[in-house]
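Our preliminary data section would be incomplete without showing what the modeling component actually yields. Below, a chain of 751 amino acids is followed by its predicted structure, encoded as tokens that our downstream tools consume directly.
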Amino acid sequence: MVRAKAGYDARVDSLDAVDPAPLAGRRIALDPGHGGRFRGSLGVHGLAEADVNLAVALELRDLLQAHGAVVFMTRSTDRDFLTPADSSLRADLNERVRLANQFQPDLFVSIHHNADPGGAHDRNETQTYYKLGDDGSSLDAAASIHRYLRRNLSIEAQRILAGNYSVLRNSVGPAVLTEASYLTNPDVEARLSLATKRRLEAEALFLGLAHYFGRRAPVIEELAARRDEAAAPDTAFAEIAAPLLTARIAGAFDFVELTLDRDMLPALQRGDALEWRPDRPLAAGPHLARLVVRRAGSGAARARTLRFHMRRRPTCLAADALPERWAGALQAVRVRVLDEWGAPDPDSLVVRVRALTRGIAPRETTLVARGGEAWGYFRAARDAGSPTRARALGFAARLVSLHPEPPVSGACHATAELWVPRGTEHVWTGFVRAMPSGAPLRDHGPSNDGSASWLTRDGFAALLTDSAGVPMAPRLDGYRRWGGGRSKAPGFVAVAGGALEGRRIVLDPDGGGEDAAGMGPSGTRAAFYNLEVARALRSFLTAAGAEVHLARSTDIAVSDVERVRSSEAFRADRYLRIGHRPEPPRLGYYFSSGPGRQWARRLAAEITRFAGPAPAPAEDAQYPLQQASATALYASPARVDEPADEDRMNSPGALRAEAYALYASLLREWAPDAAWPLDSLRVEDAEGRPVPGAAVTLGDALVLETDAAGRVRFYRTEPGLLEVSVTDPRVSARTVLIDSDRGVLLSRSRR
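Predicted structure:
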């Protein structure tokens, strides 16, 4: 075996050339990784990473303090940060960051030494990570440190990477994590067992830190919000559309960027001062501004953030009705509470609604507005009307509780009047039922994306009816129809008991663009099939009520860093990379992820049930698995370059069966003990021949596809009747299955 160069030969840069002035007074937090129960990587001869990290950090501390820096060590002995109440790795990492943030450092440096996840002993590389999303000070620090590690350790393989490790992600300021070398390489282990080599690494880190703090980068001295140019800085504002944001910069700069709630604002520069005025009224509630300033060639200033709060007064009520024309016995009235800029008031406010016409019950009612709106429901007699406005229902609303002050006077008053004219009779109004309880289906509309805008948050709907008078309810994400949807009062049952309701899941189809992610013998491009599986899985997950983000949604190249960045912005609960690479299949998880390991085991069982033989779970160090803060998994159930696997992927129903197995594993993540019966359907044509590739829809929610034998397999994840339909040029069939139905045959004759 030819091992990579171990490095650590001799320092090439002089310590005497370091100017102590830039380091004087700098606050630097050093975090020797691992310690106590957490030993980190282990060398072939037993040298523990935790001990090496600490030894290097102690040497670095002494060098920095000798040059005037103020140094904080997250640990200076062989210890962890576990407590009887929490003995998890997450607790240990959180406590390290909490202590470091309390110190308010100018830079946080976490010191580590790597291990090959596959157990190889011939690998060696210098890796320096900077905080993901901070391409300013954190990247500058990483570049300086990495340069001097590379020059003085002389390890040939080297990379600078964006990192989303917990200690980087949660640091309040610039942060860097170093993996100077691979301790699992025996030659490296032999060197790091020597105090002189550990000091050599500390000296390289010291030189990098001295270079970073010696930059002539600009400094953001102030970022503030003010009512106007003459006012003092403040953090709470009322009765204005938006505050004036100001900054003062020391030093020359050639780039400035201010984002306010993720929107970039143009700046007005006056000497060393900058001003921004948002061009639209800001909504009530908290806001976050972030300022980035740099001078090319010198470096970036440490980014500054500013939080402030907008207060709004309720000044206006607006009322409308569902349906817009009185069509049945039950009528819904919505009252919106608006501020002086026409935006919904987020506070809980009391609104009183009174009927203006006879024959309406209740005659008067008190409602609580949430998120700026209140809903009231009124039953109208058939002869309800008004002497002055015949064939119409009238309502008046007024604001009862006012927060924080009474409404302002002027054209907009906290009262509203609404008249609902009589309309068509072919509309059903009432409360949609949550089955099997039969209670109103509450808090599932209207959603932010408008997908349930036909349903109020109390479960009320106004629906057109078919020729038989049955209300035609639209599809509702997170639910399937109850009993085929033919009831006079529509009923829905939560898919899998609501296991995925509101869960946030990132799907990452491997490859894209010029990266085929593997090619099959007959031209199958794995990147395309990865995307198709992800699209099918997205349809299953959204039907079950999950929120889904695709790391790439088309056949384009997307870097791993950008995939992880988008996952963090999405605030994912789970991250799933889908692949079919030309390598042994595996279900990969990062070595320190216990939840990832459990997910891999569940997925192996589901793949065996629905998509064929499953690969074994295994440790995996792909960048997204390392860096995603969500529990992450790499699922590669087959290899694209294996002829049998390629043929299977190209067979009817195979990709959707694989997607269903992935879907089932995610259901099991949040409902691990649910007893869901396994079921199947067979589809045949009029001559009794199997129909492969036919679309089978379950409960107007999930769309499966028959395999070569005309069969689909699935879980019965909800109680009660299940409507099944097949739409295909070769056969069209529909049926309603009861709980005891299993393995039903659908053909042209069964409808």
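The chain is about 20% helix and 35% strand. The chain has five domains: 21-213, 219-311, 316-423, 504-670, 678-746. Preliminary results of this kind motivate Aim 1 of the renewal.
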